[in-house]
Amino acid sequence: MDASAQHANTIRKPEYLIEVVADEQDGSALCLQGPDVALDACGRYYTCSTRARQGRTGCQGPAVPMDRLDDAVIDFLRSTLLVPQRIEALMTPLLAHREDWTDRRRQHVVKLRAQADEAERKLRNLYEAVENGMFVSTDRMFKERIAELSSLREQAEIEADRVEAMVIRIGPMLSMQDVIRMAKDARMRFQVAGKPPRQIIRTLLQRVEVAGKDEARVKGSRGGLLKAIASANGNRAIVTAGNGGLSLDWSSRDGVEDSYAFSVPM
Q1: Is the peptide bond before 197 cis (omega within 30 degrees of 0)?
Q2: Which residues does 171 contact at the CB level (< 8 Å), separation at least 6?
Q3: For the chain, which residues make up each domain, given as ranges?
Q4: Cα separation of the two ends of the chain
Q5: Which pLDDT value is given to residue 262?
Q6: Is the distance from CB of 43 to CB of 34 less than 8 angstroms?
Q7: Cα–Cα distance between 93 and 100 in angstroms, integer?
Q8: How far apart are CA 86 and CA 218, in angstroms?
Q9: Helix or strand or coil: residue 242?
Q10: Residue 20, φ and ψ in degrees, nearest 5
Q11: pTM recorded for the entire structure
């Protein structure tokens, strides 16, 4: 194959990892260079963007053949990350935290509604007392008490509405079976034409770091992976649920480890 034919073949290959792949050493984004048939059959390779501009004096990170890294990462997604056992291990603490987060806020809403109802009850009693001649509506203490109870009722209702909106915004509740099923469906798409569509790869991957010529690391957050699986599966009922999609407000903090990192041999 002559150079022009080799170059044309190179251009047609999907760029799976651009924008998510970086050099672990200095965090710089990797860019595609080539063609260089000596490095890769397709003639293209990933290299540190700093190295591409400044040479090896700018970055000592390796140049990695495109197909080698792409194949390793795609195989990792198919054979490791999306298998039911791995998904269950990653998502069990996250879903448990989500359920607890939702339950605690629903309980808080109930308490706030009760506070608003109690303030409303006391207001009615005061007005009835005025009607029965027990108080004069122009009395200073009466006015202050009415203002206090009215403010308490309003604040409780506003806060209850705010918390309730947070619960609605995170979208429908998910069981482990739901997540495993969506991961299985996304994994099945990897069987099409040998390699999955580029968009599926880009949806599922959050960050890939090249640690050396023979190793990469796939990193991300569990909450981000949950949303990516739903998106890759085309589950718009989950992805677009609530206000602006599956909110991950609930997935952060409270002692739950959200990040993950896996070593991927090349």
Answers
A1: no
A2: 238, 241, 242, 245, 246, 247
A3: 1-98+174-266, 99-169
A4: 27
A5: 96
A6: yes
A7: 10
A8: 14
A9: coil
A10: -120, -5
A11: 0.70
Q: How sure is the predictor about 237, in pLDDT bands with cuts at 50, 70 and 90?
A: low
Residue type, 242: G
Distance CA 35, CA 249 (A): 44
In contact, 159 and 166? CB cutoff 8 Å: no
Banded pLDDT at 97 (limits 50, 70, 90): confident
For 77, which DSSP code?
I
DSSP secondary-structure letter at 22?
E
51, amino acid identity: R
Let me know: does 63 contact 45? Beta carbons within 8 Å.
yes
Amino acid at 246: L
**Euclidean distance between CA atoms 164 and 107, whole angstroms:** 10
For the CA atoms of 50, 52, 55, 61, the dihedral, rounded to the nearest 10 degrees, stands at 60
Sign of the CA dihedral 98, 102, 108, 111?
A: negative
**Per-residue pLDDT at 118:** 98
Q: What percent of the chain has pLDDT over 70?
A: 77
